[in-house]
Amino acid sequence: EELTKEQIRQAIIKKHECNAKAQIIVESLLEKDIQQDYFLKCLTDINQTHFDDVIEERSILHLCGYPICRKTLSEKDIPKQKYRISMKTNKVYDITARKSFCSNICYKAAMHVKKQMLTSPLWFRDYENIPELDLLPLNSA
Q1: Which stretches make up the RTR1-type domain (predicted)?
Q2: In 3-state terms, what secondary structure has residue 35?
Q3: CB of 75 within 8 A of CB of 99?
Q4: What is the pLDDT along the chain (141 residues), one digit of tens a residue?
Q5: Are 141 and 110 in contact, with CB atoms under 8 Å apart?
Q6: How far apart are CA 74 and CA 85, in angstroms?
Q7: Which DSSP symbol is given to 84?
Q8: Spatial distance between the Cα atoms of 71 and 34, rounded to a whole number of angstroms
Q9: What DSSP assignment string belongs to the chain?
Q10: Whether the predicted model's global pTM rises above the 0.85 cut
């Protein structure tokens, strides 16, 4: 089915609006004191790539990459090595991504959120079923 010029124009406007909103959300998640309900509300308007940006930007600011964690990253929290050898599984793991978090608990909680997030373009969200995301409790992740 052919799209009219007006439909294409509307789609481009929608795309720009969604991207602008996502950018504002990413910037807001760089604050130190993020409430859990606000965080959950934000997740429907960003995708996994934006969430990766939040994690990376927070670690640059020396904040734990998990937005609802209020801890700062200190030298003692960040593993020095690049790899970890698991004696349990006899495997070598690259732990570069883990270095953006204050603890394994926050890393697992963030990856749990990311796995649930949609990967589709933001401007398709009006036509999708948005899953209800759940968070791992930080004391048992």
Answers
A1: 41-126
A2: coil
A3: no
A4: 688 998 889 989 999 999 999 999 999 999 999 999 999 999 999 999 999 999 999 999 999 999 999 999 987 656 666 666 777 887 777 666 788 999 889 999 999 999 999 888 888 887 778 778 889 877 654
A5: no
A6: 23
A7: E
A8: 11
A9: -PPPHHHHHHHHHHHHHHHHHHHHHHHHTTSS---HHHHHHHGGG--HHHHHHHHHHHHHTTB-SSTT--PBP-TTTS-S-SEEEETTTTEEEE-TGGGGSSSHHHHHHHHHHHHHS--S-GGGGGGSPPPPP----TTT-
A10: no
| Lookup result for tokens 């964690």 | 69
Strand partners, 92: 85
Q: Token pair 């789609």 is at which residue? A: 11
Give me the numbers of helices (H) and strands (E) for the chain, helices first please.
4, 2
DSSP state at residue 92: E
For residue 110, give both structure tokens.
Answer: 């963030």
Residue type, 83: Y
Amino acid (one-letter) located at 4: T
Q: How far apart are alpha carbons 124 and 127 in whole angstroms?
A: 6
